């Protein structure tokens, strides 16, 4: 569903500290499968996720989403695609402090203009299914790591995206919570979602639910396939 | 349309919860902002109302005043001038007035003494203004005595006091009978302080003034319209002074609000990044911040204006009474007639709500065009 061809990404291009984080990536991410980007720290995993998820544009190369070239689209259209197609679970979870977990879950849907009651019901439902229904009214900053992540997952799912993207989802969790997370990934996959994550955790890469592991090193692919 | 409404509602709800999230900053801004609006609105409401008040009071005063000048100084005017004036065509009536100032050592205050003709005051009685009542804590029936020009004692019995509604001018009034006035100052019968002339056709005022001037070369003629202009300029001057003082605080406010509203904290920058990453458009983020700015500035405007209204019309503008009022030593204490000028409200609104909202949006704009991928770091 997502195809990258010869994608390169430079930071600080043209300056003294120019740095090529990705040096020519060719990659296909199949729909309805779980794909993991693996590699040492600094190898470009997160950068690759931002390109796939329309958070950033490649310096050169093409990114195609369902046969539509999105690498050259203006920001407005990217936002539209991002909102309807992708749900993000950030490494630091990035919940907004000072508001309830429930409101955090609802935020991505605000600009769509849904009825607030429906929206709240949907958010509650999602939180129930992720086993954090009891935390709906808690302030985001009081949640434990595992709870915060599940709130972040609920937020990623509120607009019912086709693709869920998670950056280092198990980096902040103990092994028990990590297994719980993989359980959630399994239900996501079962419901037809495409899941994309980065990880260098063998627990993640070797799980049955993972269909593809893509290994990165120094901004280049080392090996593709399962 | 429904979607659009829902969206605005959702954004407004979220902006309210954002504001309550930054409670300290929000309350601080609200407090400073409200007090600025309060001060500005107070000056505006007060000076406007007081000018109207003065105009109403002056409207009752004579259209033309004739004073006698001797060696360039205002002197008593003989009654025979009255006949000369009454002989001029277009003059409706003319009468001699007696007035002056009386220093009261007991209260260390000056009173404005006048002899009203309609209704007359009985000899030995006095009618006093509100300010005199307070200065001397005099009640009807009390006795007040003063030394006349020759050292003899003149005694007055307080008949009644003047109602408060036109206190701006009448606070220091001391109304006595003609006989008592002449006895106090030793003014012979047949002499007056000045002459009040009323004119049949208001458009002829200037022409008649010229005729009086020609017939009585030793006089000076004062037109009511001129007095009105003088008062206006006095108020303008005082108001101007206050506004200059206020300008300083407004400038400070502008800098403060720019600093507060425009200084995006790292936290806010991160939040904007998150909003954009989860699918908010730059426009949505700006709309959110604009709503936040509007909520703050609108509520500050409303609260500040209402407080100013209460301050000016219910609490007698206690804060600036000494500055804006006071050609009399005794400050009038009374309630101004409430009056709100739409243009004034609009001006104040424009100069407070508008800049603040802009100040909140400008830096957001800069932050909102930052790439959303920064939140992945
Ligand atoms: N905004 C940026 N400016 C400059 N260099 C960056 C920026 N973002 C990432 N990098 C560099 O790009 C490389 C790849 O980063 P990243 O994709 O985060 O790696 P990973 O997620 O695999 O640890 C790193 O060396 C990092 O320092
Ligand atoms: Mg990373």
Automatic annotation (TrEMBL), chain A:
Coiled coil regions in record: none
CDD domains: ABC_MJ0796_LolCDE_FtsE
InterPro entries referenced in this protein's UniProt entry, alphabetically: AAA+_ATPase (IPR003593), ABC_transporter-like_ATP-bd (IPR003439), ABC_transporter-like_CS (IPR017871), ABC_transpr_LolD-like (IPR015854), MacB-like_ATP-bd (IPR017911), P-loop_NTPase (IPR027417)
Keywords recorded for this protein, A-Z: ATP-binding, Nucleotide-binding, Transport
GO MF annotation list: ATP binding; ATP hydrolysis activity; transmembrane transporter activity
Pfam families hit by this protein: ABC_tran (PF00005)
Record SUPFAM superfamilies: P-loop containing nucleoside triphosphate hydrolases
ABC transporter domain boundaries: 2-226
GO cellular component labels: plasma membrane
Protein name per its UniProtKB record: ABC transporter ATP-binding protein
Organismal lineage: Bacteria, Pseudomonadati, Pseudomonadota, Alphaproteobacteria, Rhodospirillales
From TrEMBL, chain B:
Annotated localization: Cell membrane
Record-annotated membrane-spanning stretches: 27-50, 240-258, 294-317, 345-368
Pfam family, one: FtsX
Residue stretches making up the ABC3 transporter permease C-terminal domain: 264-368
A GO cellular component entry from the record: plasma membrane protein complex
InterPro entries, alphabetized: ABC3_permease_C, Lipoprotein-release_system
Main location per the UniProt record: membrane
Topology of this chain in the membrane: Multi-pass membrane protein
Top-level taxon in the UniProt lineage: Bacteria
GO BP annotations listed: lipoprotein localization to outer membrane
Keywords per UniProt: Cell membrane, Membrane, Transmembrane, Transmembrane helix
Family to which this protein belongs: Belongs to the ABC-4 integral membrane protein family. LolC/E subfamily.
Name of the molecule in the record: ABC transporter permease
Organism: Paramagnetospirillum marisnigri
Species classification: Bacteria, Pseudomonadati, Pseudomonadota, Alphaproteobacteria, Rhodospirillales
């Amino acid at each position: 569903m997502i195809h990258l061809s010869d994608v390169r990404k430079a930071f600080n291009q043209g300056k003294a500290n120019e740095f090529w984080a990705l040096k020519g990536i060719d990659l296909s991410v199949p729909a309805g499968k779980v794909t993991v980007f693996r590699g040492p720290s600094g190898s470009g995993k997160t950068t690759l996720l931002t390109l796939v998820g329309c958070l950033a544009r490649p310096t050169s190369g093409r990114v195609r989403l369902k046969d539509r070239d999105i690498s050259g689209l203006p920001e407005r259209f990217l936002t539209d695609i991002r909102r309807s197609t992708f749900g993000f679970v950030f490494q630091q979870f990035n919940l907004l402090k000072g508001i309830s977990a429930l409101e955090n879950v609802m935020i991505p849907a605000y600009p769509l203009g849904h009825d607030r009651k429906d929206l709240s019901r949907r958010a509650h439902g999602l939180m129930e299914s992720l086993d954090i229904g009891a935390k709906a009214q808690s302030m985001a900053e009081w949640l434990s790591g595992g709870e915060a992540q599940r709130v972040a997952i609920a937020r990623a799912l509120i607009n019912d995206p086709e693709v869920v993207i998670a950056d280092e989802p198990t980096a902040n969790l103990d092994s028990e919570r990590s297994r719980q997370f993989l359980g959630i990934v399994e239900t996501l996959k079962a419901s037809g979602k495409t899941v994309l994550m980065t990880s260098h955790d063998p627990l993640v890469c070797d799980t049955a639910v993972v269909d593809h592991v893509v290994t990165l090193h120094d901004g280049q692919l080392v090996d593709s396939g399962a | 349309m429904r979607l659009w409404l829902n969206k605005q509602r959702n954004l407004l709800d979220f902006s309210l919860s954002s504001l309550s999230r930054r409670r300290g900053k929000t309350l601080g801004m609200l407090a400073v902002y409200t007090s600025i609006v309060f001060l500005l609105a107070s000056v505006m409401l007060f000076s406007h109302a007081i000018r109207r008040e003065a105009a109403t009071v002056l409207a009752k005063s004579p259209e033309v005043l004739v004073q006698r000048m001797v060696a360039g100084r205002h002197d008593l005017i003989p009654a025979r001038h009255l006949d000369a004036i009454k002989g001029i065509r277009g003059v409706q009536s003319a009468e001699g007035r007696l007035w002056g100032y009386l220093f009261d050592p007991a209260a260390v205050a000056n009173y404005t003494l006048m002899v009203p003709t309609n209704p007359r005051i009985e000899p030995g009685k006095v009618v006093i203004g509100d300010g005199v009542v307070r200065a001397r804590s005099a009640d009807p029936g009390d006795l007040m005595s003063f030394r006349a020009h020759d050292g003899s004692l003149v005694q007055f019995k307080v008949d009644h006091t003047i109602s408060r509604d036109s206190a701006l001018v009448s606070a220091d009034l001391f109304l006595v009978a003609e006989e008592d006035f002449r006895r106090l100052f030793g003014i012979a019968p047949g002499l007056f302080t000045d002459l009040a002339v009323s004119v049949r056709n208001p458009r002829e005022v200037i022409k008649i003034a010229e005729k009086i001037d020609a017939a009585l070369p030793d006089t000076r003629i004062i037109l009511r319209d001129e007095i009105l202009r003088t008062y206006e300029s006095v108020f303008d001057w005082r108001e101007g002074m206050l506004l200059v003082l206020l300008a300083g605080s407004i400038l400070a406010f502008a800098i403060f609000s720019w600093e507060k509203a425009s200084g995006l904290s790292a936290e806010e920058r991160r939040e904007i990044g998150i909003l954009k990453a989860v699918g908010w458009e730059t426009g949505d983020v700006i709309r959110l911040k604009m709503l936040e700015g509007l909520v703050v500035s609108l509520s500050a405007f409303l609260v500040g204006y209402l407080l100013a209204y209460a301050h000016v019309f219910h609490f007698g503008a206690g804060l600036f009474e000494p500055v804006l009022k006071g050609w009399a030593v005794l400050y009038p204490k009374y309630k101004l007639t409430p009056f709100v000028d739409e243009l004034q409200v609009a001006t104040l609104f424009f100069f407070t709500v508008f800049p603040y909202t802009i100040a909140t949006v400008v830096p957001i704009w800069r932050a909102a065009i930052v790439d959303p991928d920064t939140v992945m770091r």
